[in-house]
Amino acid sequence: MVATALAHGSVRLAAYEPARLDDPVTRALMERISVAVDPELDAAFPGQRAARVVIETRDGRRLKHLQPNRKGDPEEPLTDVELEGKFMELSSPVIGEERARALLDCLWTLDGCATMRDSV
């Protein structure tokens, strides 16, 4: 996941498709990444889903970042734009883009929608 995020800017559903998994840039980055369990963060799971990242630069510097919550968790919710993008990404392959957009429009105006069936 880290390698595909670095190579492609995000980790979305496409990150798990064969073309992305076999991507030479992603594969090369994977060779340079190691993953380990952080006992302190692991002890807080599942109540908190944190991650710590340490990057060692070519000049020897160590850059560290603690991400205490996942984006999309209640403590760090998605924006409306991010939520729409995720909804469309996950629903369009199943029900089609037009129906997904209609359903999304209904969800944003749920109080004015007679039934969900009208939208899909």
Tell me the number of strands.
2
**Distance between the first and last residues' Cα:** 33 Å
Helical/strand content category: mainly alpha
Shape annotation: extended
> What percentage of the residues does DSSP assign to strands (E)?
5-15%
Number of helices: 6
Strand order of the largest sheet: 1-2
Q: How many structurally independent domains?
A: 2
Q: Provide the succession of SSEs.
A: HHHHEEHH
Low-confidence stretches: none
Describe the protein:
The structure is a single chain. This protein has 120 residues and is mainly alpha-helical. The chain has two domains: 66 residues, no CATH class; 39 residues, no CATH class. Helix content is 43%, strand content 10%. The chain is built from six helices and two strands, in the order H-H-H-H-E-E-H-H. It has a two-stranded antiparallel sheet with strand order 1-2. A hairpin with a 5-residue loop joins strand 1 and strand 2. Helix 1 crosses helix 3 and helix 5 packs across helix 6. The two termini are 33 Å apart. The model has no long low-confidence stretch (mean pLDDT 90).
Feature tags:
2 domains; 43% helix; mainly alpha; single chain; 6 helices; extended; 120 residues; two-stranded antiparallel ribbon
Short description:
This protein is mainly α. Helices cover about 45% and strands about 10% of the residues.
